[in-house]
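subagent[fold] <- orchestrator: predict structure for attached chain, return tokens only, no commentary.
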Amino acid sequence: MLKLAVFDFDSTLMDGETIDFFANELGIGEKVAQITEEAMSGRLDFFQSLQQRVGLLKGLDYSIVKEISQNLPYMNGAKETISELKKRGMKVVCFSGGFRSATGYAKDILGYDADFSNVLHEKNGKLTGLVGGEMMFNYSKGDMLVRLQNILGVSEEETLVCGDGANDLSMFAHAGTRVAFCAREILEKQANIIIKEKDLKKILENI
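subagent[fold] -> orchestrator:
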């Protein structure tokens, strides 16, 4: 029986990449999206790509960051799926290589129990180009998942994970149910449930 479900945020619970929305405000959306794609496909180290992309956001007004973070398009079926999993007695958590400004706001809307993500550093109302947090490295999601399993007394077999990119591989290594959602090939190879349609409710048909 499943007891814990962990979802990625960008392109999983949310339809798009938060950092790309920020970059569009500075007219560098294409440049940042290209780096994101390289990282998600496993061709670029996640930590380096994160530093590089956030560095390009330097000078962006934090008020814009907040506004965008609170108006993101959530994935079709996200709220319903989380609600159903919780009804089945599961703890539902979000792990994101993205940002707390988005995952913290979405928590009460989508209904998950906790979020672990990164924080954009701002000073005098503007982004400094620096970032810190819990999900900075390729191994971060797997590392945090093992810690959560230990705290909650949940086994790998009782754990479901769902993501779309290479930085989700580390948590796939510690879960019995591994959902690749509209995912890169590198992640699909490690999944035992593959969903090609942008509808998270499809998960419920497979567990």
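orchestrator: received. Logging for downstream: The CA atoms of residues 4 and 159 lie 5 Å apart. The mean pLDDT is 96.
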